[in-house]
Amino acid sequence: MKDRIVRTEQGKVRGIFGSDPRVKVFRGIPYAKPPIGDLRWKSPVPCEAWEGIRDCSTYGPIAMQDVPGSDPNDFWTRELHPCGPEFEMSEDCLYLNVYTPSRTGDEGLPVFVYIHGGGLQGGYPFEQEFDWEHIAARGIVVVTMAYRLGIFGFFTHPDLSRENPDGPKGNYGLQDQTLALHWVRKNISAFGGDPDKVTIGGQSAGSRSVQSQLTTPFSKGLFRAAIIQSGIVTPFHDTTDPRTVRTLSGQEEMGREFLERAGIRSIEEARKTDAAELMKMARDLYHGRLRFQLVTDGVYLPESYEDALKHGNWHDVPVIAGYNTGEVASFNRMVSSLPQNMEEFAAFAEKFGDRAEEFKALAQVRTNEDVEKLFSSETFMRLPVSAVYGGRTLSSQDRKVWIYEFNADMPGDEDRSAFHGAELWFAYDALARAWRPFEGSHYDLACTVSSYWVNFIKSGDPNGTDARGNLLPEWESFTQDRERRMYFRDGAEMVDCEVSALADFRIRSEMER
Hints:
By secondary structure, this protein is an alpha/beta fold. It is built from 18 helices and 16 strands.
């Protein structure tokens, strides 16, 4: 890797020394043609070759989205996006970044490909909570990418489907991720990585993306392990969730409705509409709601990732999956159709068909107050119950899965609970980048959590030693005989995954459907 120059299939790139000079950083490597003009709302196309040496010292633009960090009073501005308004934003966003400790390019190091979150509407791969150089310095090649978001990444319309009758429809952002994985397969050895030792990971919408990559046949064989942060979220049939993967016909109708309400007469006209103006139309019409989402198109996603998990159709790789204690309630607020009184409870029970009476007996509710208490209890808290569901399902398929709950103290606010995304600072060893007044015990926990992640990326098993050479507490995999999870609080401790009799009933009912 002389002079930080690497030859990729498309041409030579020159990186820079990171803040840790042992790590070389290559920013803004294009992996696809700009998805603009006639390529808007089409499957990504590999980028063309270039002459000479491409300078890769600057990150590519972030994907089109509401400007991150534009509201100084927003929680996420201080937490993740203190510099968000300063970043370039463009529809031309399909670039990736490589962080490598390689000296010669021949080391064959394990590779971690991370997919950022943000509701599929926002986010970018170099947010404040990721210290990718620090992770790379521990013997890993890290790859992060931008992908299309919101209306540019997940718009669906009948005319777009007719343009590509036998190919993928919608899910353009997911297809971008898959193309980036193919880029890694072809090019990462030049950066000192082993294309046969790739782990993918993601949090929030990134975890949904990981579960989609576990499902799509287009990514089969491109990675050997997966990390799912913020849960294997199962859409239990007795409730509804707006994040559930949607049907092609439903999303096509929404796309048709959008163009009609926006006064756009055709897809051709829509492709010529300025990107910022299109964003404004979507914002004004839908007021920030998660309208443009994943779709089961029968090709890229032959079935939803939830159904693929149930049917044993995920790619057969080991998995780490878990959630944060403080995000449980916020996830549950997204779930609708929860009963508020005895009449609604009786109707809810009928969803279980000939097992309705069994459900009622286990529920033991007699008053409206009982109903309210039951449906705000852990029995109906999606993340903990889904974690057990996911563990049982994967282990019943003879697959390795490690489950966790993260509950670290988060200083700096009155509410010190482990909020949505809190574990990222610890898993990617970035506490020194945070505004929060973390202390020595937090750094000890970050060393523990990140070491489990690094070990898993290196070997497909989280166990081993930490970054300081100390033996980590054993993290037992979740099995049908021992339903256990790792509990991260002051340290790492194995605990039983205890669920109520009614939660167990719901899990079994879902697995048997």
